[in-house]
Amino acid sequence: MKGKGVFICVEGLDGCGKTTQTKLLVRRLREKGYDAVYTAEPSRGKIGKFIKKYCLHGKKRVSSVVEALLFAADRYEHVENEIIPALNEEKLVVSDRYVYSSLAYQGAAGLDLKWIEKINEHAIRPDLAIFVDVEPEIVIHRLKPNKSVMENLETQRKVREVYMKFVEKGELVKIDGNKSKKEVADGILKVVLRFLEKRVKKP
Ligand code: TMP
Question: What is the pTM of this model?
């Protein structure tokens, strides 16, 4: 059950500046008087820590199916232990990554999007989902290449393709992330404030 707060998530490719932008958004919303809180996935819960240690920083990658299940399990804990309690306190929760990351990354790894949606049925819908769009060709230069540059580029392109499907469906709001840090931050804040104003005006 979702409380009275507002739930926003910010998505994007690795290296698109999403974490900086999400933290900046929370700071600017707080300055405007909103009770905003920053949260992230993988979460700081037990499964989130496990993912960081064994999936993201481990020497050997686990299978995409196992990854998808772990991210879905971590999300369950994130929603139950962090997001819903904050929404019940009428806070504005801003999550750095959410279910669209599973759809984009594990989808790009070849898993069926319908199955990913199924195992994430417990994930409450965000009120607003933002996609910080930076060209894959740009982000790969910001990443530590643990594979060949081409493999990384190929992966980032596939991930962006999935994100763009959700932009086209109207589920994600695309922000041009190729501009300066301040311009991107202004763009995100504008979308969020417009959304919050409309929400207040609703009967
Ligand atoms: P971060 O760099 O934003 O902390 O994200 C960690 C990595 O985890 C990033 O490469 C994206 C990946 N990821 C998934 O593959 N699926 C997911 O569901 C989530 C939340 C993250």
Answer: 0.95
Atom of ligand 1 nearest to the CA of 42: 20
List C-alpha distances in Å: 131 to 43, 53, 184, 196: 19, 26, 11, 17
Length, in residues, of the chain: 203
Is the CB–ligand 1 distance for residue 21 below 6 Å?
no
- The pLDDT confidence band at residue 2, using thresholds 50, 70 and 90, is low
Tell whether domain 6-201 is in CATH 3.10.150.10.
no
**Hey, which of 14, 55, 83, 103 would you mutate to test ligand 1's pocket, going by the most ligand atoms within 8 Å of its Cβ?**
14
Model pLDDT for residues 129-182, shown as the tens digit of each residue: 999 999 999 998 887 766 566 668 999 999 999 999 999 999 999 999 999 999
Name the residue at shortest CA distance from atom 16 of ligand 1.
102
